[in-house]
Amino acid sequence: MEVKKCKMYDDSSIASDEAKIHIKKLLQHLNKKDWQDTLLFMLPQLSFNELNAVTNSNGRICSDVIKGPITILNSIVKDIKERVPFNAIFPSERLNLPTSGENSDCDPNITIHVDEFLYNDNDIEELLNAGKLQQYYCKNCGSKNIKSLIYISHSLSQDALHYIFNHLLPILKDKTILDIGSRLGAVLYGAYMYTDAKKIIGVEMNKDFCELQSKIVHKYNMQDRIDILHKRIEDAPDTIKSADVIVLNNVFEFYLSEVEQIQVWQFLRTTMTKGTIVVTKPYIEETLKHLNTVIKINEWLRRIKEPQGSPAPNLFCMPLADEQGKYSDIASYEVL
Ligand SMILES: C[S@@+](CC[C@H](N)C(=O)[O-])C[C@H]1O[C@@H](n2cnc3c(N)ncnc32)[C@H](O)[C@@H]1O
């Protein structure tokens, strides 16, 4: 019985090696556009390691044709768009619009929720040009007295993920990354694509989002390193303690009352362990400014001023620096 199992395994690995050779040959004969279409069709069947087999002689993924993780992330985006409403907010969610702080102007009548992971700047421009999104609202109907609508994203953009994992953070080989409030899973997929972290954990209190993440993780064979926990972070102290890196993208402001936000920040203050790296958007100083948490940030966290990532070109030949100050509201800290 055991021998048979081994043989089957051997046969299938020979077959897959042969398949790779055929696929490589096939791809060599396609033009750039057809390459991309074909890969978008094939990617959900490939794991990241298998994808690495499609490299050129320098060992780099053929970046003129396929931008590795970007292509996979784009494919994931396409899948998620088919599964969520346009504003990426599930009916099961109860948004709690802020009444104090920077975002207290988010009146539901003039606030549009557009998810940056699903729609990048170019997509938004296209939607605006096509009249599918509006940029302004009229303060006195019929007059030219117009004002910009407020755009809110509840996920990190692909560019921001690239910046965080390739530039801001050090190499995370064998480390554990925790995303608190993992929502669509953007941080989880970004961490999977851009790092060698041993474990990537998403904690999310909304069941529908956990199910969505789980479908994507399985479709793209990421379950070897990604775990999804359907719970409130307050109920996961051991997960917090196990993390080397914790990502907090404006996680509580739109979802919890001010009293709950104060409690959860105090819980994080006492639960995170010394040496953990914390990535926040916006700066934690900004988030806590209008909450009466009595947390002394400088006794809890030390801001890491210099990006820890290597400035050398990475495998996918992507620009690394925050050239236009696009990510100036993202900061990293070390827990003291
Ligand atoms: C702004 S989204 C962050 C999305 C994701 N981390 C990213 O950057 O793309 C915040 C998410 O946190 C979840 N959330 C809020 N409070 C939570 C809590 N106490 N425990 C677990 N999840 C929470 C919300 O349901 C929401 O999906």
From TrEMBL:
Domain of life: Eukaryota
Protein's recorded name: Uncharacterized protein LOC107268352 isoform X1
UniProt-recorded Gene Ontology molecular function terms: methyltransferase activity
InterPro entries: Arsenite_MeTrfase-like, SAM-dependent_MTases_sf
